[in-house]
Specification:
alpha/beta; Rossmann fold; 7-stranded parallel β-sheet; 8 helices; globular; binds adenosine-5'-diphosphate; Oxidoreductase; Sc_DH/Rdtase_CS
Length: 251
């Protein structure tokens, strides 16, 4: 049976851990050639090794997505290395300091917005420039349940994730007729080693309690939705926001 992404080239930012790593591995399993881009090069290299060990094709790339010149070079690297760009997952991000808005320092705010929001503009700008001449492509921007819901403690993160929803809509309206579909994925809280190691039992229980399904999500569950949206099976789906959240936002 032909693999769903055979012959396709994919770029995943923040591909060195968590959700991005799961997306990169699944894309490679389904036949895509994948650039695994991350600020943390070692993480990206480990994901590439896993992909190669499973018979897939991938290359690692060190990137700070908040630098537009570096983002342009990352897209060039992808096109030069694998011969094009068909799919992109703009996923790199940080949580930022946890405190309410009046306590946020100006520099802290700018940094979170640079890494989580401006980066996605830079990525889409150059990814679209690579995709549009071919008249096809698909982009997923990794938003969050905090792309529509709020919490007090992470105002810059909440703002940036809301902005990705708007950016996704604007880009989809502009480019869907030219063959490029753009969607946002909105995960609930995902069980990662970071969550496991940084939260005590009580905080973890409280976090789980926010999800009516009764547990946190898994990175591969977010990747499942992301791959569907990137695939040709989602050919009429563009410009929308897709929850994968165990009913968090249903409340
Ligand atoms: P999640 O659970 O959302 O996957 P992670 O923290 O595991 O969260 O993944 C986010 C990824 O984004 C990490 O691999 C991290 O190194 C990467 N990242 C963070 N900031 C940047 C940046 N400025 N440029 C590129 N990658 C980044």
């Amino acid at each position: 049976m032909t693999k769903e992404f055979a012959g396709k080239v994919a770029l995943v930012t923040g591909g060195g851990s968590g959700i991005g790593a799961a997306c990169a591995r699944q894309l490679a399993d389904e036949g895509a050639k994948v650039v695994v881009a991350d600020m943390h090069l070692e993480g990206a290299q480990q994901v590439v090794e896993t992909i190669k060990a499973a018979g897939g094709e991938a290359a690692s790339y060190q990137i700070d997505v908040s630098d537009p010149v570096a983002v342009a070079a990352m897209v060039d690297f992808t096109v030069t290395t694998f011969g094009g760009l068909d799919c992109a997952v703009n996923n790199a991000g940080i949580g930022g300091p946890l405190k309410p808005i009046a306590e946020y320092e100006i520099d802290e705010w700018r940094h979170v917005i640079d890494v989580n929001q401006n980066s996605v503009f830079y990525c889409m700008k150059y990814e679209l420039q690579a995709m549009l001449p071919n008249g096809k492509g698909s982009i997923v921007n990794m938003s969050s349940i905090l792309g529509t819901n709020g919490i007090a403690a992470a105002p810059a993160y909440v703002s940036a994730k809301h902005a990705l929803v708007g950016m996704t809509k604007s880009a989809a309206i502009a480019y869907s007729a030219q063959g490029v579909r753009i969607n946002a994925v909105a995960p609930g809280y995902i069980h990662t080693p970071l969550v496991e190691n940084s939260l005590d039992e009580e905080s973890l229980k409280a976090l789980v309690g926010l999800h009516p399904i009764g547990r946190l999500g898994r990175a591969d569950e977010v990747a499942n939705l992301t791959l569907f949206l990137l695939s040709d099976r989602a050919s009429f789906i563009t410009g929308s926001y897709h929850l994968v959240d165990g009913a968090y936002a249903a409340q």
